[in-house]
Amino acid sequence: MKKFYFGLLLCFWFFLASLFAQETKMTVAVMELDAKEGVSVGVASIISDYLRTQIVNTDKFTMVTRENMETILKEQNFQISGCTSQECIIQVGQLLGVRKMFTGSIGKVGTTYLINLKLINIETGKIEKAEPEKVKSEDELLSAVSNLANKMAGLSTTPEILLPPPQIKASQPKPIVSLEKKVSPAGDMNWWDYYGEGKIFAQLGKLEEAKNAFLGAISLESRDRCKARTYGMHFIEYFPHRELGIIYYRFGEIEKAKEELKKSISMEKSPKAQEYLKLME
């Protein structure tokens, strides 16, 4: 009988511990990063999505997804476009019912990319935390976003190590950026991390890196579809075969491009895949 009561007490303790852990997670939302000089709105939007993923991966916050944000604000007839002032962001946070809002900007000064991120307390209206991150190339943007998410969550970050460029002989092939080194705080990269990186690299014209990223996504989740669940109730449009086909098309590898686009259409038809396939007929 004592063992029974002890087991019951232990279960109750674990239940309370799990409730406490859930309560300590802060409910937040992320505004789209404001695209400044040298950065397109498309790239800023993709970086914003990647930021949301990295913030969730810290396991310190409960995130209101972009889709849910849009639905709630639409029901309230609130126009979020152009909402960059602190007063407007606080109003968005109040409508969403979150405790804090992430907001910031991404721009380019000379050859340096600069990302500024702020955490605003909706109740007090004050900026609780502000962190910058600067990098010298597009390839380092994703690592910078991961660092920012970790800084905001109070986790350790990857230090910036400045090394001299490697001496490469003319006969050696050009090195390819390794995606294996870019890992989430939980460990390995998820398929949506690879997919997000692929889209960013494609936007930046980094075709070889984009190809590797989409291949990485396909190796973990191979089915193209309009609605793919990533974490919690967060869904994204996921078409890695289609995007890989477009990369092959840009490389001039038409047969490979056709093969990937046809695979995509066989799983889920999309106008984008069909249009690119028509270009090659």
Automatic annotation (TrEMBL):
Example of a GO cellular component annotation carried by this entry: outer membrane-bounded periplasmic space
Pfam families: CsgG, TPR_8
Domain of life: Bacteria
Classification via InterPro entries: Curli_assmbl/transp-comp_CsgG, TPR-like_helical_dom_sf, TPR_rpt
Entry keyword set: Signal, TPR repeat
Signal peptide interval: 1-21
TPR repeats: 238-271
Protein name: FlgO domain-containing protein
The organism of origin for this protein: Candidatus Desantisbacteria bacterium CG1_02_38_46
